[in-house]
Amino acid sequence: MSSLLSLLLALPALVAAAPVAAPELEPLVITAPRDRLPTDQVIDPQINTHLLRLLQSRQDARPSTEEELMASGGPLGKLTTATGFKLLTRYTELGFLLTEGLAGVKDLQLAAELERTVKLGTNKQTRAAAMVALAYTKDQRYLSLFLSGLQDQRVTVRFAAVESLLILGGPSARFPLMNAARDDLSPAVRVYAAQGLWRNGDPYGREILLRLYQDQDWLVRAMAARYLGELGSGEDYRKLMIELTRETHSAVKVELAGALLNLQKYKDR
Asked: In the chain, what is the straight-line distance between the N-terminal and C-terminal CA atoms, in Å?
């Protein structure tokens, strides 16, 4: 009895000494429901039929106007938390939901319709969604679609093409990613392609990110800082600490602070 009492009295100290997991904001990612199903699971045809009809009805539709989006989603636009932002993205852009519902399709009719949408659809958001959804099949036969997407005039489609190449993976994605990181007209596409290149083991991506951090556009600097913080080392910690003392834009300063926190474990290496 006395040993039990001693244990109970010691519990507060034990709890206080126990390591506490740091809170982590969940990243905004698309998780394909199909990929969570067993490989032998048969999907109800009604689900695919409805998704197919929705895709067909949207692929040539005009993008929604800001007024239409905010009519129902207006309250979401006022939320400032990470969860609020994810809800706003989810329910004001149908392409996000289409990508999530269609990603990794194995149904031949659906896959063919996605491919047709990428090639012939006029709605850029739906084309981008269809492209990323196809990438989740991990089928290299769609590589040519993604390469064509890199040449599109619309940045939404080009960004989706880069994302698709990163999802598809494999050696065949390396040189297209390198070209996009170096030559794309959109700085945002260049940053995203560069981090993907680095994430897949090519150090040239890091060099591009370091160069892009010197860009005059604050958004480019913020994006570059974020990825340097995710993928960098002790040398990057020291470089970004110097940049923190020079940076003038508040949003970039916050990204730099977050990047430095991520790299804290490398600061003495």
From this structure: 51
